[in-house]
Amino acid sequence: MRRSRTQTRQCILDAAYGLFWRQGFLRVSMDDIAARAHLTKRALYQHFPSKDDLIAAALAHSSELAMERLRRFRRPTRCDELIDSFFTELADWAVKPRWSGSGFTRVVVELADLRGHPARAIARQHKTAVEKWLANALAAARIASPCDRAREVMLLMEGAMVLMLIHGDRGYAKAAAVAAKSLIQKG
Predict the structure, then answer these.
(1) pLDDT of residue 114
(2) DSSP run (H or E) holding 61
(3) What is the DSSP letter of 143?
(4) How many CB atoms lie within 10 A of CB 92?
(5) By the 8 A CB rule, do 106 and 20 touch?
(6) pLDDT of residue 78
């Protein structure tokens, strides 16, 4: 059965997403993606003119999925419960098989010397959207200076993700939650 253009494009994005997150954005070739999507390389290039375009599209798709998960996230109204829930969710995410950290952070690190790469802009937009979501959640919990506190929590979240990846220890998410609650209480 032939796939529609939309179905083929989604199949490519799914294949690329899986490979990028497991192996890294730069190590995966278009040949790898075509094979994983059960397509010829020519068909792949009909949908995505370059690997850079495919990386950007995969990140944009991933951002949409992540933001949808955040919109469904149960947002307690008490700040300490919100922080605990947020970092517990982060720790639970980190125990998934073959978890390799935040793809948005990883792609920026991999492309650190390519400042104009479109994937860097998508990663920046995604992280900004998460920070805005967090600021709104903190504002709803009546926290003073919610934008400042959201930025601090983002720093703790990024640090926790990196250290969980390095050490394989989910305890960093719990430590980040403790630090976040302390910052918010003092703020």
Answers:
(1) 86
(2) helix 51-72
(3) -
(4) 11
(5) no
(6) 87
What's the pLDDT score for residue 60? Answer: 94
| Angstrom distances, CA of residue 162 to CA of 17, 31, 173, 178 | 20, 30, 10, 17
Around Cβ 107, how many Cβ atoms within 10 Å?
25
User: What pLDDT does 12 receive?
Assistant: 96
Examine the pLDDT at 63 and tell me if it is beyond 70.
yes
Tokens of 13: 């994005």
pLDDT of residue 187: 65
132: helix, strand or coil: helix
Say which residue the tokens 């990663």 belong to.
Answer: 123
Two structure tokens written together for 120: 């860097």
- DSSP letters, 90-137, are HHHHHTSTT--S-HHHHHHHHTTT-TT-HHHHHHHHHHHHHHHHHHHH
CA–CA distances in Å: residue 177 to residues 40, 91, 163, 180: 47, 10, 14, 5
